[in-house]
Structures are given as structure tokens and as C-alpha cells.
Amino acid sequence: MIRFAHDAAVAGLACYCVGGAVRDELLGIPHTDRDWIVVGATAEDMTRRGFRPVGRDFPVFLHPYSHEEYALARTERKSGRGYTGFVVHAEPTVTLEEDLERRDFTINAMALDAEGRIIDPFGGRADCEARVLRHVSPAFAEDPLRILRAARFVARLRPCGFAVAEATLDLMKAMVAAGEVEALVAERVWQEVERALNAPAAEAFFELLDDCGALTVLIPELEGRLAAGLERMTAGADAPARLALLLADLGVDALSALSERLRLPNTFRERALMVADSRALLDSAPDAEQVLQWCRAMDAWRRPQRLEALLATLDAGGFELPIAQLVRAVAAAREVSPQGLMGAGYRGAELGLMIESERERLIAQALLASS
């Protein structure tokens, strides 16, 4: 249930809960974050009541007690190309409906007042019931980031039955054709991709981007490989695994280039490259030398938890690799004791060679026993 503040800071203010919390309340989805809009106030009014300004691009304030964010009602006017070229107008004359009209989708353009009444000038409630993601106005086309947001919302809401309205998809295609997507910077693209990878239907994100043509602009490496990648990624246990499985057919060089362009965090970069390396280093019936080389490349001895995550990802991907044999071979090789070999008199370079020789011997035994 959405609870309104009742204290001196908000007394007499026209406050509304807007956006995602109202949508999720109607859909029966748990929510924790709430967005508040204040109509008819100035920045001076807010600071006088104890609110602390935090907004950089438009007037946003922290409530003095709850520390929730309250924004002044505002409108936006396109002033340049891309998703940053906007002039914000926040004045007491801006109405709630004008503020809601600048939002992306009808299901996000509803408000709730303190009496529990829903203000819904653009049909968001009906679209919630129909499970339709529909743009509020033609101004949707002014912000290419909304293409990624549409794809992320579908990834999150597809289990509830949501699909994109045909008119909205047509508008997204027109935005791509106009070159708007090319203005998106890597950080914002990755931010939306990562959120989608954590969504219940992550594959829907990439399917919608492909349907509107944006995927070819943002991740051209997936052209011709998307179907196989999507089929695999649904088995991924976590976001790094899903991305690694989606990109598994790219190869090491293409993956490295993509990682640099999108500035992937190390966790995602490593998992994807390890999957690619594993497929390059191993075949369906590897010998002990191959497995030992793979263990070295995966840093198997020093980072066992990372290796376990890789093996789980490879197993989920259904590749023609003997995962169970690899698990047993690695476990056997870990039985080699450098201290024991040192006790037998081995030192320096000779010790290193003996450790590797023993590991290969035990791997060979494990592979033979598993065959």
C-alpha cells in the first residue's frame, strides 16, 4: 500500500505519488521505491519547509524526515539531438497532467492523491488491464533512451502478459531510422542492458531491440547469431551467465571489442571471455594436456569460485563439452600438494615443473576413469 507523509513538511502541499509505484500497485507487483510530485510550489517553498535540494537537471528535493525524493511538476522541451538535449520548465503553473504527459508510457503516467484516487489522463489503467505498453504522446520520439526503457519494461513485465503496442513499435522503428539511437552513450546503454539481464524475461529485451532495428546499431555483433544466443541465455543462473551465453558465438576478439565499446564491468567481461576461451581450448573429448592448459587459462587453482561459476555457465549453455569430466579432473588436480613435493626435495623451477606434471597425471587418471 502507498502511504502518504502527513507532517509539517508536506502540510498544505499538493503532493502526488506518480509512476512506477502506482503502476505496480495496480498490477499487484511488490514495490519499494516511490516517486513524488509536488504541484503549485517553488524551490523556495520546498527549502523553507526543510526539504534539501538534490536535483542537478531539475528541481528534486529530499524530505527532511523520510528522505524520499519529491520533484516539482515540470515540462520538458526538446532542444537538441539525443537524450540529453532538453530544456526543463518547473514552475508553480505546471499542472499535474502536463507533468504526466512528458512521461514515456501510459502505465507510468498515472498519479495517486492522498485520498487514494487515481488520476489517469492517458489511459494507463486500461493499458495495465490490457497488458499493453503504449507511448503517452509523440514526444516519446524525442528521447532515444525510451527505446531501451521499452525493451527493459517488456523484459520485466512479459511474465504478466505485457506486449508493446503496434503504434509504439512503429514509432521506435522510425526513431532508429532517423539515427536517434546512435546518440546513446555506452554507459547508458549498458545500464539498461544490465537491468534487463536481471529481469524475469531478459530475452524479451533483445528481441524487442531486434524487432525495431536498434540491436543492429547497438550490438551489431549479434546479427545472425541472436536466435541461438537467446535460446541459450534463458538457462543462465545470473546476469553474467546470461550475457556470456548470449554472446557465446562471438569469439574472443569480437567479445573483447564489444566489452571495450560497452565498457562492461569486469564480472561480465570475465565470464563472457572465459566461456569463449573454454570453447576454443576444449573439445568434446579433451586430453589431459588440453584440460591442464584450460585450467591454467582459467586460473583454476587460485580462483576456484570463479571456475565453479564458469562450469555452471558452460553446463547451462548445453555446449558439447564434458562438464562432469572437467569437474572431476579439476578436483583431482587440486589434490597435488606443493608442500608434499617440497618435502620430497623439489625446489625452484624443478618444483614448478613437478607440480604441473603431477596435475597432468591426475587429470589423465580422472579422464580415464570417467570415460
Any chance you could write out the topology, listing elements then pairs?
Layout: E1 14-18, H1 20-27, E2 35-39, H2 43-48, E3 52-53, E4 60-62, E5 69-72, E6 75-78, E7 86-89, H3 96-101, E8 111-112, E9 118-119, H4 124-130, E10 132-133, H5 145-157, E11 163-164, H6 166-177, H7 186-197, H8 202-212, H9 214-218, H10 226-233, H11 239-246, H12 252-262, H13 266-281, H14 288-297, H15 304-317, H16 323-333, H17 338-343, H18 348-370
Parallel strand pairs: 2-5, 10-11
Antiparallel strand pairs: 1-2, 1-8, 3-4, 4-5, 6-7, 8-9
Helix pairs in contact: 5-7, 5-8, 8-10, 10-11, 11-13, 11-15, 12-13, 14-18, 16-18
Structure overview:
It is a single chain. With 371 residues, the protein is an alpha+beta fold. It folds into 3 domains: 1-122, Beta Polymerase, domain 2, CATH 3.30.460.10; 131-214, Hydrophobic Seed Protein; 280-370, no CATH class. Helix content is 50%, strand content 9%. It is built from 18 helices and 11 strands. The chain has helices at residues 20-27, 43-48, 96-101, 124-130, 145-157, 166-177, 186-197, 202-212, 214-218, 226-233, 239-246, 252-262, 266-281, 288-297, 304-317, 323-333, 338-343, 348-370, and strands at 14-18, 35-39, 52-53, 60-62, 69-72, 75-78, 86-89, 111-112, 118-119, 132-133, 163-164. It has a 7-stranded mixed β-sheet. A two-stranded antiparallel sheet has the order 6-7. α11 (239-246) packs across α13 and α11 crosses α15. It is elongated, with a radius of gyration of 27 Å. The protein starts with 13 loop residues before the first strand and ends with a helix.
